Amino acid sequence: MTATDYVRTLRARIGHAPVNWAGVCALVVNADDEVLLQRRADTGGWGTPGGIAELGEALEDTLRRELQEETGLIPRQPLLFTVISGPETFVRLPNGDEYYQITSVYVIRTWDGQLRPDGVEGTALRYFPLDALPDGLGPVDRQALELLRACLSVY
């Protein structure tokens, strides 16, 4: 069952009520230590590539699938960076759906493929310096990027 089918089936049963979503966030970092963000089609804001796991899917497979679907990139040697969860991850989408995120965050420094937005979940892709990120990032993206900025400033 695809993640989209899973969400639709579950939402048909429970409506907009809050749920826990397990998923991934990809921090694609280029040679200039800039991070790749996509303009989200659902909110119009910027965010990291990623998404929720399909039913029974390993999170590493979710990472590869979501990153390739949303950006055209295939990660090489993704590094599990952190896991973000808790009440601060709550999101209410414009359609009324509510959820809490349990997100495995991966850093990707090397990849294959050609960068291209999918036009469905994301409308544009752009690298941003970590000290000049756009406003309106979601709670998981904001926390993951703050941790990444702190780690990269150590080096």
Question: How would you describe this structure to a colleague?
Answer:
This protein is α+β, with helices and mostly antiparallel strands and 155 residues long. The protein has one domain (3-154): Nucleoside Triphosphate Pyrophosphohydrolase (Alpha-Beta Complex). Helix content is 26%, strand content 37%. Strand 2 (34-40) and strand 3 form a beta hairpin. The relative contact order is 0.25.
List keywords for this structure.
single chain; 155 residues; alpha+beta; Nucleoside Triphosphate Pyrophosphohydrolase; five-stranded mixed sheet; three-stranded antiparallel sheet; 3 helices; 26% helix; globular
Helix-strand layout with pairing:
Blueprint: H1 3-14, E1 19-28, E2 34-40, E3 46-47, E4 50-52, H2 59-71, E5 73-76, E6 79-84, E7 91-92, E8 98-108, E9 110-113, E10 122-129, H3 139-154
Parallel strand pairs: 1-8
Antiparallel strand pairs: 1-4, 2-3, 2-10, 5-9, 6-8, 7-8
Calculate the terminal CA-CA distance, rounded to whole Å.
Answer: 42 Å
Please write the CATH class name.
Alpha Beta
For the largest beta-sheet, the strand count, sense and barrel status come to: 5 strands, mixed
CATH fold topology: Nucleoside Triphosphate Pyrophosphohydrolase
Uncertain segments of ≥5 residues (pLDDT<50)? Answer: none
Number of helices: 3
Mean pLDDT: 94
How many beta-strand segments? Answer: 10
